[in-house]
Amino acid sequence: QVHLVESGGGLVQPGGSLRLSCTASGSIFRNYAMAWYRQRPGQQRELAAYIDDGTANYADSVRGRFTISRDTAKNTAYLQMNSLKPEDAAIYYCHADLQQTWPPGTRDMYWGQGIQVTVSS
């Protein structure tokens, strides 16, 4: 069984920074990609940032301010969020595309439980 656990959220003032972490635990054979989604109040969940073996991609709204990175040895993804704006306030969800060690070859998508980011003075 694979689980994703997020950490690092909280309250920050506009212009401030936060770093989110997401660690996948379980019998993981391969980490294909990880991503951060967010759901702002009253809106649908949207992709904020994505990273796989070759590329990192960002939503237009966060490009230049957010940086996604991944440590495949630790099955951990990070989201460094700088110059935060009130409109960045949301629940941030970690997403991972992973292949399990057992059952062999099992590849699936996983979600974390979400973590709150509040941007307010």
Lay out the secondary structure.
Blueprint: E1 3-7, E2 10-12, E3 18-25, E4 28-39, E5 46-52, E6 56-58, E7 66-71, E8 76-81, E9 90-100, E10 107-111, E11 115-119
Parallel strand pairs: 2-11
Antiparallel strand pairs: 1-3, 3-8, 4-5, 4-9, 5-6, 7-8, 9-10, 9-11
Can you characterise this structure?
With 121 residues, this protein is mainly β. 0% of the residues lie in helices and 59% in strands. It contains no helices and eleven strands. It has strands at residues 3-7, 10-12, 18-25, 28-39, 46-52, 56-58, 66-71, 76-81, 90-100, 107-111, 115-119. Strands 2, 4, 5, 6, 9, 10 and 11 form a seven-stranded mixed sheet that branches. A four-stranded antiparallel sheet has the order 1-3-8-7, with no helix packed on it. The mean pLDDT is 96.
Gist?
The chain is 0% helix and 59% strand. It contains no helices and eleven strands.
Arithmetic mean pLDDT: 96
N-to-C SSE string, H for helix and E for strand: EEEEEEEEEEE
**For the CA atoms, what is the radius of gyration?**
14 Å
Number of helices in the DSSP assignment:
0
Give the overall shape. Answer: elongated
Termini gap: 40 Å
Question: How helical, in percent, are the residues?
Answer: under 10%
Strand content: over 45%
Number of strands: 11
Main beta-sheet annotation: 7 strands, mixed
Low-confidence stretches: none
Structural category is: mainly beta
